[in-house]
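So, can you check this one?
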Amino acid sequence: MNVVKPIVGQWYRGGTNELFEVVAIDDQDQTIEIQYFDGTVAEMEFDAWNEHLLDELIDAADAPEDWSGAVDVEAEDLDREFEDNARALWASPHDRSLRR
């Protein structure tokens, strides 16, 4: 049996290969609150966690490198539609010396 304890802040991979993070553990209610990579929040009982472990459906995973999964941002929203004028502000040699 693969022993994987739920740890708040730890990422896991579920049986259908979905990534999720444990965000809270309630010992009194015996539940584990998880948040999937897409932002969906769900609750799992301790018994269900243990059943998933017996069926080898949960394994520890690295946190995703792409932070945008739980953020409602489309790729085109990340494109810049404005002009970056920061360089123009420091254009003269005198101005560049002030940056040091």
Summary: Residues 31 and 45 are 4 Å apart (CA to CA). The chain has three helices and five strands. The mean pLDDT is 79.
